[in-house]
């Protein structure tokens, strides 16, 4: 295994393919390197050198490992084996479906009942006089990417829900994501199908009911996490953003977080910076700056902190981007993290991910990892959440004081 900081003294050892891990054992140094197979994002064969056939393994945790295999045939076989193990074609090829438990193991049901969305909202004192459980999506007919149980304003009729869903991209109507103790709420949705002039009375009523569900403030914010120019381009395609002339007592805010394509390019440049052949402090800092990664992290944190401050000040906020499952999930969960001490515990952080990411239909299959099977870079949306959480841990004493997510320190 090559060490780019010490190329003259590479680690020599044996590679083992375990059921769940790739393990490199340096017998001389008595050191083991374990790589979880499901953490591998790409495996690449590099041009043959005089010492052997290089194999580059990149992981979803930003780890890059170089192996030099003496024989080209062995390198080819290892490359194919790693691809098959780390990127199974069918879901039933995953190890969990073949695992044979022993009597001393945990039951197969362990962990599956960890999160219950009703229990999570009951912790926020929901349902109540202002917010109720809606069962209109029990068969996922209202929105196939929302949970079967969503919470909406108590006065929202079926006609309002159906009308609002039909006016929102992919049917992702405004729904409750978090309720603060002062009755200010964070709601989330997708962009409206407004175009340049279309309007929907039911959608306007839906946002007005969200505003009225907070009796302590006469207005609310709608935060569009996209740059304004992006929203205007979508408007030309029949989508876009809310027309201020149609929505009363609502203040609009654009936050300017980059889209998936921007984030992909940023991540690619960041990885290239971390994999420099002859790294130096100046080249690393220059590459980090040109990648724009920290600029994107800052824009996500700025938006999340702004939303948290608005809610803490008693003003409800409705958040969306294009489809409402990338940037929306980021800022809603981070704002809740700032507002709610419970989410700063291990169990609370797990519940936050279950609620704001899994329940509301984040496309983990298409989003997690850096390199997809077809070689295209994926969006590092969830990775950015972890980075933002770590930044909060370090930069905001009022948040990090009770933050018990010590495991995230290792993420740095």
UniProtKB/TrEMBL annotation:
The keyword Membrane does not apply. Keywords: Hydrolase. The active site is at 321 (phosphocysteine intermediate). SUPFAM superfamilies: (Phosphotyrosine protein) phosphatases II, PH domain-like. InterPro entries: Myotubularin (IPR030564), Myotubularin-like_Pase_dom (IPR010569), PH-GRAM_MTMR6-9 (IPR048994), PH-like_dom_sf (IPR011993), Prot-tyrosine_phosphatase-like (IPR029021), Tyr_Pase_AS (IPR016130). Pfam families: Myotub-related, PH-GRAM_MTMR6-like. PROSITE patterns: PPASE_MYOTUBULARIN, TYR_PHOSPHATASE_1. Substrate binds at residues 259-260, 321-327. GO terms for cellular component: cytoplasm. GO terms for molecular function: phosphatidylinositol-3,5-bisphosphate phosphatase activity; phosphatidylinositol-3-phosphate phosphatase activity. GO terms for biological process: phosphatidylinositol dephosphorylation. Residues 111-412 form the Myotubularin phosphatase domain. Belongs to the protein-tyrosine phosphatase family. Non-receptor class myotubularin subfamily. This is Myotubularin phosphatase domain-containing protein. It comes from Diatraea saccharalis (sugarcane borer).
């Amino acid at each position: 295994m090559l060490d780019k900081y010490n190329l003259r003294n590479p680690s020599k050892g044996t590679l083992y393919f375990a059921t769940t891990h790739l393990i490199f054992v340096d017998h001389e140094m008595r050191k083991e390197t374990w790589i979880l197979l499901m953490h591998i994002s790409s495996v690449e064969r590099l041009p043959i050198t005089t010492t052997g056939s290089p194999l580059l393994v990149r992981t979803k945790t930003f780890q890059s490992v170089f192996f030099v295999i003496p024989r080209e045939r062995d390198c080819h076989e290892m490359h194919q084996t790693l691809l098959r193990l780390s990127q199974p074609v069918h879901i039933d090829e995953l190890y969990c479906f073949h695992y044979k438990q022993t009597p001393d193991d945990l039951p197969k049901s362990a962990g599956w009942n960890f999160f219950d969305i009703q229990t999570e909202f009951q912790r926020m004192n929901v349902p109540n006089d202002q917010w109720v459980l809606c069962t209109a999506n029990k068969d996922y007919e209202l929105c196939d990417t929302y949970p079967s149980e969503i919470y909406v304003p108590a006065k929202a009729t079926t006609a309002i829900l159906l009308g609002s869903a039909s006016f929102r991209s992919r049917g992702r109507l405004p729904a409750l994501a978090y309720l603060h103790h002062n009755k200010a709420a964070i709601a989330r949705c997708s962009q409206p199908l407004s175009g340049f002039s279309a309007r929907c009375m039911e959608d306007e009523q839906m946002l007005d009911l969200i505003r009225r569900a907070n009796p302590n403030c006469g207005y609310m914010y709608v935060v569009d996490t996209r740059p304004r120019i992006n929203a205007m381009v979508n408007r030309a395609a029949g989508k876009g953003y809310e027309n201020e002339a149609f929505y009363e007592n609502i203040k609009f805010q654009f936050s300017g977080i980059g889209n998936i394509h921007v984030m992909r390019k940023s991540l690619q440049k960041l990885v290239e910076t971390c994999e420099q052949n002859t790294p130096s402090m100046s080249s690393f800092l220059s590459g980090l700056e040109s990648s724009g990664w920290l600029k994107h992290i800052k824009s996500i944190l700025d938006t999340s902190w702004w939303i948290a401050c608005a809610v803490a000040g008693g003003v409800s906020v409705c958040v969306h981007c294009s489809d409402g499952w990338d940037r929306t999930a980021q800022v809603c969960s981070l704002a809740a993290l700032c507002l709610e001490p419970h989410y700063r515990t291990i169990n609370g952080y797990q519940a936050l991910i279950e609620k704001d990411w899994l329940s509301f239909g984040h496309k983990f299959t298409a989003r997690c990892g850096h390199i997809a099977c077809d070689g295209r870079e994926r969006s590092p949306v969830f990775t950015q959440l972890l980075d933002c959480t770590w930044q909060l841990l370090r930069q905001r004493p009022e948040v990090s004081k009770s933050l018990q997510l010590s495991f995230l320190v290792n993420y740095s």
